[in-house]
Amino acid sequence: AFAGTSGSAELARKGTAILVSLTMILPAALLCNYGRELCLIDVGTEGIKPDDVDFATRMFHRRHVYEHKGGEADEKYILDSGDASVRPKQALHETQESAHRLVNLVRKLAGNLHRGFHEIFPPERGRIDAYAKRQSVPDH
Asked: Disulfide check for 60: which of 27, 87, 100, 129 has CB 3.0–4.6 Å away?
């Protein structure tokens, strides 16, 4: 995925785009919870500041621009994301700070999603113990 990168800026752009693509479900779930309120699992905002919700929303919209528009902002991106810092046809850029912030936010969202999932489907202790027992038996 990183073959043929010409420098650290391009590597950071590709890395951010790949990371955002892989993790788009978490910001999408957050948007679903606070936009339409139709989700089964409440991702929740535990440990997440309001400006981080805005950041996740912007990164979710940027993922689309990186993936489908070659990294150039268009009117739809500006309208949907509310990002007033760019103009149409302007290339989007990410910083090391924004990549780190995204990773930290995705970690928090994943934890919230995990807890929400287990509120709906509680782990069964008996099955967990049986699995652990099977794993501890050496192969013959």
From this structure: 27
